[in-house]
Amino acid sequence: MKNFSVNLFVAALCLFISVTQKGFAQSGGSLYLGYGIATANSIEDVITDIVITTATGGSYRVTDSKYSGAIFGGYRSYIIEKLEFGGTFVYENASKDLLTESEGTSSISTKTYAVLAELKYNYINHQHFRLHSGIGAGVAHARTSAEDDVRVEKDKTTDFAYQIDAIGVSYGKAFSVSLNIGYGYKGLANLGLAYKL
């Protein structure tokens, strides 16, 4: 039942975004690509590793942690003078090695895909400069693979995805660059490039 509900939510979200994009396109939307660092996933993962390592007295240790950061892209358009609505796709890859006294070394890799519906409010909305905040919510799907000398285990999880951009600035007209500070699946800080259609 949970998978059905999640699939239904994703389908409804995609349908809503595609329908609204057609209506918004008349007012001129924007396509954007970006990169974010220190995502909610990576921060929570590091904290969990520290807690487990401490609680087990070092019998469980993590080495060689690597996080790709959030790579994202999407579309947004104005629905009223200062408010924009859009959809974003986010990808992140993470990997690490686990050292345990009983089982030796194993490797874990996780690929996370998220789809978010987002709102952005522009406090200052000049032609070349914008000061804004934003919020996004959606669903994330993670595929985890754990491998050691003997076996490979795979797992899939679906979670709530979110992004809160507390403050951000954008500069440019047809092409613009933006920097946002916040928390979520796009990171504590994310940089984006947008093209106005």
From TrEMBL:
Instruction: Give UniProt keywords alphabetically.
Output: Signal
Q: Where is the Outer membrane protein beta-barrel domain?
A: 11-185
Signal peptide bounds: 1-25
The UniProt entry, under Gene3D superfamilies, shows: 2.40.160.20
The record ties this protein, via SUPFAM superfamilies, to: OMPA-like (SSF56925)
Pfam families reported in the protein's UniProt record: OMP_b-brl
Record-linked InterPro entries:
Beta-barrel_OMP, OMP/PagP_B-barrel
Q: What is this protein called?
A: Outer membrane beta-barrel protein
